[in-house]
Amino acid sequence: MARRSDGAKQFRIAVIGAGIHAETNIYPSLANHLLAKVKTIAVCDLDDARARRMASFSGAGKSYTDFKEMIRKENPDGVIVCLNGRLHPQVVIACTEMGVPVLVEKPPALTVEDARRMWQASQSSGCPVMIAHQKRQGTAYVMAREITSNRREFGRVVQIEAKMHAMPRFPTNFSCLMEWQVHGIDLVRSFGGEIKDITARSWVMGSNKAAVAILLTFASRAVAAVGWGTFGGPGPFCERIEVVSDKGKGVIVENASTVTFYDGSWCRTWRPDWNPNLANQSQVLMGYVGEILHFVDCVQKKKQPSPSIEDGVKNLEALYEIARQTGITTEWRFTPSRF
Ligand SMILES: NC(=O)c1ccc[n+]([C@@H]2O[C@H](COP(=O)([O-])OP(=O)(O)OC[C@H]3O[C@@H](n4cnc5c(N)ncnc54)[C@H](O)[C@@H]3O)[C@@H](O)[C@H]2O)c1
């Protein structure tokens, strides 16, 4: 790790993947928000022109088309891997075998078995593997979790109502689960804990058209009702979660941006304001900056990140069980971020 001017260590990060999502959210987070703490030292993409462009934008300067060569030559403190669910397992496992902690985009893998192999590789190498579910670090969800995790004030979480609507732009119903609602299951687990039981129903109208309803029971005995499917999103009524406690209190997060806390007699609501300051920038509000900071903090302090690859395995187990019960065939096709 390089020394910063204030004497603290600057985390040296390399990025594998310079595609659309990385260009839209990862590199801008690194270049615009994290320069003081994180130094982007190198960029790798099979597409040399893309790698060079993002290396120039992020200030890394150095670009590669072979990630193993990049790791050998640059010796980063951590890597961000942003490719796709089919490619992630082999690249992430190779990185951990080379001794490098990884922040990998969702979905970490296409099968539970591959995700378990990544978990195993993380354990045997001692390199943490974190999944980039940025919503966990989004401002609204962090505020909501601060309220619900204060057991003395809020009480016990007993009930969750959540929705994550989508759109038939995904090529298959399973792609919709794996690319979009994988964030939803991760969020619900972040408030409810371990899932003990799943009951799912669907109306499948076509290979990329379905309505999906799910009931969950958590190990804590709390219950959840979840609405997914391929209709109703991604507009302003797409995403909602309400977490209710045994003290009659609740927190609602609407579209990852508005937080309402109520205690039975009154409520208060938070929204980001219009001020163009750091905290109100989209990559901060959405959690992309926070997820990188959390990854860096966990590597530096040798803590398990959240969500870890263990969470990745549990999220995929839940998605496969939902697909099985709803008759959704597990055919995944890559959905590029470009519309
Ligand atoms: N968290 C989010 O909000 C969010 C949003 C969109 C996409 N994503 C995820 O981000 C990932 C990337 O999506 P995208 O739309 O940017 O895809 P993309 O196809 O635009 O980018 C992937 C890039 O990886 C490169 N690549 C492939 N194999 C490589 C290798 N071995 N070494 C180096 N580079 C390699 C490709 O050349 C391409 O430029 C996916 O997993 C997707 O699900 C996350």
Strand-helix topology:
Blueprint: E1 2-3, E2 9-16, H1 20-33, E3 38-44, H2 48-58, E4 62-64, H3 67-74, E5 78-81, H4 88-97, E6 102-105, H5 112-125, E7 129-132, H6 139-148, H7 151-154, E8 157-164, H8 173-192, E9 195-206, E10 209-218, E11 223-227, E12 239-245, E13 250-254, E14 258-262, E15 267-270, H9 282-285, H10 288-300, H11 309-326
Helix pairs in contact: 4-5, 5-11, 8-11
The chain binds nicotinamide-adenine-dinucleotide.
In short:
The protein has 339 residues and is of the alpha/beta class.
- Which fold name is given in CATH as the topology of the largest domain? Dihydrodipicolinate Reductase, domain 2
User: Would you report the number of β strands?
Assistant: 15
Gyration radius from CA atoms, angstroms: 20 Å
Helix content: 25-40%
User: What ligand species are in this complex?
Assistant: nicotinamide-adenine-dinucleotide
Shape: globular
Largest sheet entry: 8 strands, mixed
Class from secondary-structure proportions: alpha/beta
Number of helices: 11
- Largest sheet, spatial ordering of strands: 9-10-11-8-12-13-14-15
Instruction: Report the mean per-residue pLDDT as an integer.
Output: 95
pLDDT under 50 segments (min length 5)? Answer: none
Task: Compute the number of structural domains.
Answer: 2
Superfamily (CATH H level) name of the largest domain: Dihydrodipicolinate Reductase, domain 2
Q: Termini distance?
A: 38 Å
